[in-house]
Structures are given as C-alpha cells and as structure tokens.
Specification:
Largest sheet: 8 strands, parallel, barrel
Structural class: alpha/beta
Shape: globular
Helix content: 40-55%
Number of strands: 9
Number of helices: 15
Strand order of the largest sheet: 1-2-3-4-5-6-7-9
Distance between the termini: 34 Å
Oligomer: single chain
C-alpha cells in the first residue's frame, strides 16, 4: 500500500460541507424504464459528481432484484471509468462470500489498470440477495459457512492483491494479474499500487474486524439506522493503527433526496418505500411510479413499515436535506457521507445531487 493511501481514503470536504460527500448508486430501474436507461443515468450522475467535487462513486452488488441493475459492480465501474477522469470509483460493495478471492483480485487489478489510483474495493459478507439466489451464486446450501469464513477470505484476497503469499503456501506460485507480480517480472514496469480495501457492514461484525485490521469502515445507515451509533462506536474502540490508517475513518451511507418541490420529494420517497415493501414481502419488482404509490392501498402493517423506513430517509426541500445531513453528521461523527438517492426517475436522482451540491457550494464546472 503506497504512502498516500490514507489520503486516497480520507478525501477533502468542499464548500461548506462538514465532511467529504460521495455517491452510492444502486442503479435503480423504474417502471417503464430499462436497465440501459438506468446505466445511462449512472454515467450522468458520475459525471455530475466528478464535476461538483464529490469524493467517490460506489456501486453495490445485488442479485435477482428487477429494480436494481447492479449485479456486476466491476463491469459497471469499468464503464464509469471510461466516462470519468478523476473521481474515485469503487464497490459499495462486492459481497466476497459470493466469489473466489482470486477473481475479485483480478477484477479490481484490471480496474486499477484502467483507472490508476482511483479505485476502491469495498467488501461485504452478506449475499446481497435472498437465500435461494445466494445458494445459486455460491453453489452451496450452507450459506452461513461463507459468511463465517469472511476473515479468512479477506486475508486471502489481500494476499492476492499484494502478491505476498509466504513461501510454501499452496497459492505462492499463483498471481493476480494485473497486479504487483508484473512489476517484479523481467522488464516489468507495472505499478505496484492496488486499490484500498474497505469493510462494509450493517452490524458489529465488520465494524470490529475493520477496527482490528486498521481498515476504513463503511456503515449502511440507509437501511440499518438503529445500528449506526453502536457499530461506529465499536469500530472506533476496536481500531488499531495499521500501514493503511493511523486513525479510524468511517463513512455512512445515507438515503437523501432533495427536490425543487418538497411535495414531490414525499411522493418519490413513498414510491421507493413501496418498492421496499414488495422486496421485503418476497415480491421484488421495478421501482413504482409516484402515481402508482399514490393509488396503492397500504395495509396497516405495510404502512407501519413505510413510516419506519421513511423516517431514516432525509428528504424534502434542499434546505431540509442539508439540515438533515448536517445533523446526522454531528450525531454520528461520520468522517464522510455517502448519499444514495432512491427515486423512480433518473432525472429526479440527478437533480437531487445537483441541488445538494449547490446547497453546500461545491465547485462548479469551469
């Protein structure tokens, strides 16, 4: 890991933002839209985020969800790398138990070769889907085995990334390419730099592991808000300085949607909540339109879920959103806020990031 690894991780706050701002993209697909439309929106948002000074842009691995077109983070990141020049790109995250560590080392070594010095490798241990789909991905019915083996899988992945298995190890003669081995080969000029590893989580397991290993930590506040404070406390208490970081660094994922008309924000958020109701009850689909959500007859139980879910979505006018983000950062002490805008239309999501950038006085394109 290069000496400037901590700088790549930490970033810089711009304008009046209290901490660096970043983007988490779920590549959502709305009713009446295609995956092609969603991926085009991702390019538009990534370009906007780069132009306005957002620090990084991550995509998350999900499977078997019609409304989320991000099953292949490495493929999407390669596409975004071709359309951007400076913004950091990464996974938020790759679900490591779904993959052989060597494959991930190869994929992200390739991404690093495409976009040198601006790739992050965020790792999670959840399946990113339901149990049946996880079984198809992992070719096993023993799903807990993959999650329990996460620390060992992580250690193996890091060895592949650094190309430093000890002498006598069964994988000692195996190399992730592109990677550091090319720098040590005759005539080799390959950069030894490799993507910083982040651990992601929604509970205490990854928080403790990230702290113990001295790695940066990303917490999924956007769907596990009740666990945010305990997990961040555990991460900070467990932290041990490492070659990567000399002090803890934690970002949190935050659902945030700003609109020109605050009533429209409520409608968009209600539609996204209906999508979550369907997902949680085994009926995943495309993100419904606000009109469909307006007409939907929520049961009392569903309505209770929606109210609970929306309570953790910062939405409304841009002033409401800015105040909500500022308050959340103060409460949690997060070192970075990673914003995800969930809405039916790509234009609404794009406008939300633009409004938030304006509210904090982030840089404007030349």
């Amino acid at each position: 890991m290069p000496a400037d690894a901590a700088e790549e991780i930490r970033g810089t706050a711009h304008g009046t933002a209290p901490v660096p701002l970043s983007v988490l993209d779920l590549v959502t697909v709305g009713a009446g839209r295609t995956a092609t439309d969603a991926l085009r929106t991702s390019v538009d948002i990534a370009r906007l985020a780069e132009a306005r000074g957002f620090h990084r842009y991550w995509v998350a691995e999900h499977h078997s969800m019609p409304g989320v077109a991000s099953s292949s983070p490495a493929v999407i990141l390669a596409h975004l790398a071709a359309h951007t020049d400076r913004i950091r790109l990464g996974s938020g995250g790759v679900m490591l138990p779904n993959h052989a560590p060597l494959v991930i080392a190869e994929q992200f070594g390739t991404l690093e070769a495409m976009a040198p010095g601006r790739v992050d490798l965020g790792l999670g241990r959840a399946p990113g889907t339901d149990g049946a789909t996880a079984a198809a991905l992992r070719r096993t019915e023993r799903l807990n085995e993959g999650a329990d083996d996460f620390p060992q899988q992580l250690a193996e992945l890091v060895r592949f990334l650094d190309d430093d298995f000890p002498d006598g190890h069964p994988y000692g003669r195996i190399h992730a390419v592109p990677g550091p081995v090319q720098a040590t080969s005759p005539g080799g000029v390959q950069s030894a730099h490799r993507p910083p590893v982040w651990l992601l989580g929604s509970s205490g397991f990854s928080a403790r592991l990230a702290g113990t290993l001295g790695l940066p930590f990303a917490f999924a506040h956007h769907f596990s808000a009740q666990n945010t404070a305990p997990a961040l406390d555990l991460y900070r208490e467990s932290f041990r300085p490492s070659a990567v970081l000399d002090a803890p660094y934690a970002l949190i994922g935050v659902s945030a949607l700003a609109t020109d008309d605050e009533k429209e924000a409520r409608r968009q958020v209600q539609a996204a909540a209906l999508n979550m109701v369907r997902l949680r009850t085994g009926r995943p689909g495309l993100v419904p339109t606000p009109e469909e959500a307006d007409a939907y007859d929520f049961s009392p139980m569903e309505l209770e879920f929606v109210q609970s879910w929306n309570a953790n979505v910062i939405h409304g006018s841009v002033d409401e959103v800015r105040t909500g983000l500022d308050d959340l950062q103060k409460r949690t002490g997060a070192d970075e806020l990673m914003l995800t805008a969930n809405a039916h239309g790509g234009d609404v999501r794009l406008r939300s990031y633009e409004l938030i950038a304006d509210a904090y006085g982030l840089p404007t394109p030349a």
